[in-house]
Amino acid sequence: MELQIEHLYKSYRTKEALQDVSFTLHQGTYGLLGENGAGKSTLMRMIATVDFPTKGAIKYDGTDIFLMDEEYRNLIGYMPQNYSVYPGFTAREFLEYMGTLKGISKEKLKTRIPEVLEFVNLSDVADKKVKTFSGGMKRRIGIAQAIINEPKILILDEPTAGLDPKERIRFSNIISDMGKDKVVLLSTHIVSDIEAIANELLVVKKGKIVETGNVDGLVQTVQGKVWETIISREIYHQLRKERSIIHLKQMGNDVQVRYVGDEYSGVDNSEVEPNLEDYYVFAGGILEESEE
Ligand SMILES: Nc1ncnc2c1ncn2[C@@H]1O[C@H](COP(=O)(O)OP(=O)(O)OP(=O)(O)O)[C@@H](O)[C@H]1O
């Protein structure tokens, strides 16, 4: 199974939202990372066929998805950004409604609905009205409707927005499991979400894909470049001009700093294990510089 994005462009009247975007997705979990307005939703809307590219193609195993029509729509599950659920429905009624819209038979829904409710951990509230649900529960019912047709491609736009830390972990577990037999593509502007959920990273910046790669592989590229040190405020003011700062903690008159780059001389540094945030800040720094 392969989903190919080929030289994709999308322009709105006054805005080039995507410019020459190309990449290929296979089975696995992909995280689309980028700031607000970078073009993530635009890209996902086109992969979900709810919007059309201005130029370029999206192909599923070599066939243009817009020509596959119904056949492709049966293969995908999509949760748009700010997904809202009809509040008057119970969870079960909502899934019956969405399942019917997707053309699933009543017979099949009888077994499939309990399965998806179990999967997203909502079995015990199946007959409660959705309006009584927390934000995280609503998000989980959004995923349930997206997977009800057993999609081969699952597209989740900002699925973790507004979730509390406990829901975030529950959610990560649910999504990581799904990448085993599907293409899962999710967007976020939170780096740690990618690390917790995705194996592959796609960084979007101003309508372009500026980086792609395996999360562990990318993190390894900053191995030996991430440091922690406790220094005075004066030294910190100098250090921050010369290195990318990841994290800062006040410690009385001193500050504890995590930074990425070459080891800063003249202070006591401890080398620390890198994470995706370190990589992202480091790579972001490089990208900004090369743009100038
Ligand atoms: N229907 C539209 N008409 C005009 N401009 C649009 C439209 N949809 C998106 N844009 C613009 O295209 C750019 C990309 O928007 P998009 O929503 O894809 O970004 P995003 O990365 O998903 O950010 P966010 O997380 O804020 O949604 C933005 O500048 C946005 O203002």
TrEMBL record:
The keyword Nucleotide-binding applies. It comes from the Bacteria. PANTHER family: ABC TRANSPORTER, ATP-BINDING PROTEIN. Keywords: ATP-binding, Nucleotide-binding, Transport. This is ABC transporter ATP-binding protein. It comes from Parablautia muri. One of its GO terms (molecular function) is ATP hydrolysis activity. Residues 3-231 form the ABC transporter domain. Belongs to the ABC transporter superfamily. The keyword Transport applies.
